[in-house]
Amino acid sequence: MLSPVDSRSRHRGAMWIRALFLALVAGALLVSAAGVEASTFTVNSSADIPDANPLGGVCETAPGNGVCTLRGAIQAANVHAGADTIMLPANTYLLTQVGAAEDKSLSGDLDITDSVAIIGAGPGSTIIDGNGAVTGERVFQIFACTGGGSPCDVGHPAIVASMSGVTIQHGQSPNIAGGILNDGALTLTNCTIANNIVSGVNDWGGGIYSSGTLTLINSTVADNTTGASNAYGGGIFNQGPMTITNSTISGNKTFGGTSSPGSGGGIYNVGATATITGSTISGNTAANGGGIFKAGYPVVVINSTISGNSSTGGGGGFYAASGTTDLYNVTVTNNTANSDDSGVGTGGGVANASGNTFNFKNSIIAMNLNVIPMIPFPLLAEDDCFGAITSQGNNIMYAVDTDYCTVAGAVTLVDPNLGVLQFNGGLTQTHALLAGSAAIDGVVIGDCTDNFGATLTTDQRGVHRPSGVHCDIGAFELSDIIFQNGFQP
Question: Cα angle at 382 between 366 and 280, to 5 degrees?
């Protein structure tokens, strides 16, 4: 039998062995974690040359030369475990590698097959040019799972990618996504996606096609185009969860052919919920839904402006083909339906197809147009809506043709007296409320809320709400404090 002293000694020995074992395990885990620690690759060449040995863990175009290109950095990041970072200094990075379609970033587009963050010096300084007229490909493809396979699992986790401070331009694809094809989780911050084209088989997403998760923050999607073959989404074709904040979707075009609907000049949304906040959708063109076309899942628009869009058919600003639409403090103005004078299409501001739900609250849907065919010249008619829409309070409209538009709930029919679309402070363009506008202090106390019932404390520009006694109707809050959120970017 052991004495109490012997028993304590054996117990202390066991504790020491256990502590040593745990320390060894912890050390092994640290070593293992270090093995997948993220790396940072700094690009120092604008040439479009692949990495000499991506498996080597060093970005360089030849052994020992220290030259790191964007293509090489992406290849290195793809094979290096962990969420790596690519630093991309101010320069223009022109893609020149032409070759057979492949998914290793050897030629053509830049294929992202592992989580990565690409950080540029600003969209005016760091430009990634797809050179699609030469390469015949889009600029980026982001895969869903690490390694490029699908479905994702423990060994092939979902890809999380982000880009900031870059312009992505001049991609050209014959089938889906002119600029970016995203199947992962992509966040674009302070980026510009511009002048990309998809034209050929399925013309989906001139700027961006996304079936994954897409987040745009302080970004611009502009002047992208689809062809006329099964065409949807000149700026963005979205099929997954999407959030757009403080961004601009402008000047995008979706062309319709003889057998093509050409829907969603700025945005085509289907398959998942989209939320748009503090943003401007302007100057986009399509056959239906010049600004936004939605099908199926809900679209929620808050503190945003839909202006100057046009459709050759219906819904110059917004076309809801199915599902639920909700607008909160939104300004919809200066949009045009039947812009080609074909006699097909109404609802210059918004169009809601039969059987759907279209709600609007604290919003302006006014001063929109429809082109009426006449001889010898077409006639412009005020035309704010088509279909059945529901006012949930504190809304302004101007022209409701009851032959084809039914508004449930009260609205004020009046010219809202808006200024031109321009920068009035903040990151995006807005229509200012001019003196005497009926929208000023037009929201009942307690009704200045978003889709969750939370109080809206700012307008689209970030100016405090309310400035007066009550919140103003629409995306703009009239304030004596000019440029409270800074001057135009």
Answer: 40
The residue with tokens 């000019």 is 482
Residue type, 231: A
Residue 207 Rama label (left phi>0; alpha psi -120 to 50; beta): alpha
Q: Which two tokens stand for residue 146?
A: 């690490």
Which strand (E) or helix (H) includes residue 181? Answer: strand 180-182
Q: What pLDDT shows up at residue 418?
A: 98
323: nearest Cα among 306, 345, 298, 346: 298
Q: Of 278, 328, 281, 330, nearest to 309 (Cα)? A: 281
Q: What is the pairing mode between strands 208-210 and 180-182?
A: parallel
DSSP H or E stretch at residue 79: helix 70-79
Element (H, E) at 406: strand 405-408
On whether the CB atoms of residues 468 and 382 are closer than 8 A, the answer is no
pLDDT, residue 114, reads 96
Closest by CA position to 129, among listed 182, 75, 91:
91
β-partners of residue 293 are: 268, 319
CA distance 190 to 211: 21
Point out which residues pair with 237 in neighbouring strands.
Answer: 209, 268
- Residue 130 structure tokens: 């797809």
Structure tokens at 235: 């700026």
Classified as helix, coil or strand, 288 is strand
- Low pLDDT (below 50) residues in the chain: 1-35, 482-489
Q: Which residues contact 32 (CB under 8 A, 6 or more apart)?
A: none
How is residue 203 written in tokens? Answer: 């013309």
Work out the number of other CB atoms within 10 angstroms of the CB of residue 359.
Answer: 19
Q: How far apart are CA 123 and CA 216, in angstroms?
A: 14
Instruction: Round to whole Å and give the CA distance between 97 and 88.
Output: 19
Predicted local confidence at residue 11, as pLDDT: 41
Q: Which DSSP string do the residues of 418-449 spell out, in sequence order?
A: EEEEE--SSSS-EEEEPTT-TTTT-SPTT--B
CB atoms within 10 A of CB 189: 19
369-422 pLDDT, tens per residue? 999 888 888 888 899 999 999 999 999 999 999 999 999 999 999 999 999 999
Q: What are residue 168's DSSP bridge partners?
A: 128, 193
Q: Taking the model in full, what pTM does it have?
A: 0.90
Report the pLDDT value the prediction gives residue 36, as an integer from 0 to 100.
Answer: 55
- CB-based burial label for 23 (10 Å; 0-12, 13-18, 19+): exposed
Cis bond leading into 466, ω under 30°? yes
Give me the DSSP letters along 204-262: B-SSEEESSEEEEES-EEES-EE-SSS-B-SSEEE-S-EEEES-EEES-EE---TT---
Q: How far is CA 40 from the centre of its chain?
A: 26
